[in-house]
Design a protein that fits this description.
8-stranded parallel beta barrel; 14% strand; nucleotide-binding; nucleotide binding; FAD; TIM Barrel; PRODH_bac_arc; 52% helix; alpha/beta; single chain
Length: 306
């Protein structure tokens, strides 16, 4: 992890910085990465993305909750989002984090909440993806996913795998045998070198291996990256290995590389935009800044001008 990224992640936990950015951030730059603080505003943005032939996955932000009541509220929000998607006629699925659903309180309680969401995804003929979080939570996340995968099938539930973790190839091999629908990401959490590759080249190399193995296993793969070298590699790989177009998609974050998203659509590729929304946007925003610390300078300049 670069020194700049470490500094941003450390600074983001400072209470003074948290209060400042939470108060002014949406007006002064966070709205670049967060579609809205409520469903109504967000669905307007989703409609605009759909007009450009971009698919969407909605993520109601919020993580590391501490009470069962908060977890139920988050679960209700995710369930309602499927109805809102259907009612508005937009093309979107949903992503969730298990810490938001009570994973740290009680994994069994979290499973109950996630089961409600997966059931709603199936009822509305839609799809939910479980985001992967930091390494201490991976095994519990995998257990919940595997339980619900057996119950609802890969048509309605998928998972995220992070290439910077040493264990990820073993996880992809295991999930590939089940034909699981996976989103491959590099990883955005602060992890020790005992569990994660410290060097970018190793992370990138692992990323390509994970994508290649999952696609060769005939499994649906979401290639979540803004790295043009990886995108170009993927184009060559699917062409040379005769991978069907309906077996993969590119995924990118809302507010990042918009022109590249549209270029890929024009070339005939499926592109999905990970679109976060909600009032609890600060942790997500901090990770986006950490991935590209130059963005922090923009926010800080705006705050001082304020």
């Amino acid at each position: 992890m670069s020194m700049a990224r470490k500094a941003v992640l450390t600074l983001s936990s400072n209470p003074i910085v948290t209060r400042l950015v939470s108060k002014y951030g949406m007006k002064l730059g966070a709205s670049r990465f967060v579609a809205g603080e409520n469903m109504e505003d967000t669905l307007h943005k989703v409609k605009d993305l759909n007009k450009d032939e971009l698919l969407v996955t909605l993520d109601l932000l919020g993580e590391s909750i501490y009470t069962r009541e908060e977890a139920v509220v988050a679960t209700d929000g995710a369930v309602r989002s499927f109805d809102a998607i259907r009612q508005k006629g937009v093309t979107s699925n949903v992503s969730v984090k298990l810490t938001q659903l009570g994973l740290d309180i009680d994994p069994a309680f979290c499973l109950e909440n996630m089961d409600r969401i997966a059931a709603k995804a199936k009822e509305t003929e839609n799809f939910v993806r479980i985001d992967m979080e930091d390494s201490p939570r991976i095994d519990a996340t995998m257990d919940i996913f595997l339980t619900l995968l057996e119950k609802y099938g890969r048509e309605h539930i998928g998972l995220v795998i992070q290439s910077y973790l040493y264990r990820s190839q073993e996880d992809v091999d295991k999930l590939g045998a089940l034909k699981a629908n996976l989103r491959i990401v590099k990883g955005a959490y602060k992890e020790p070198r005992e569990v994660a590759y410290p060097d970018k080249k190793d992370v990138d190399d692992a990323y390509l291996r994970l994508v290649a193995s999952h696609l060769k296993n005939g499994c649906y793969t979401a290639i979540a990256t803004h790295d043009t070298a990886i995108i170009d590699w993927t184009k060559r790989f699917v062409r040379e290995n005769h991978i069907p177009a309906d077996l993969f998609e590119f995924q990118m974050l809302y507010g990042i590389a918009a022109s590249l998203q549209l270029e890929l659509v024009r070339e005939g590729y499926k592109v999905r935009v990970y679109t976060p929304y909600g009032k609890d946007w600060y942790p997500y925003f901090s990770r986006r800044i950490a991935e590209r610390p130059a963005n922090a300078l923009f926010i800080l300049k705006s705050l001082f001008r304020k």
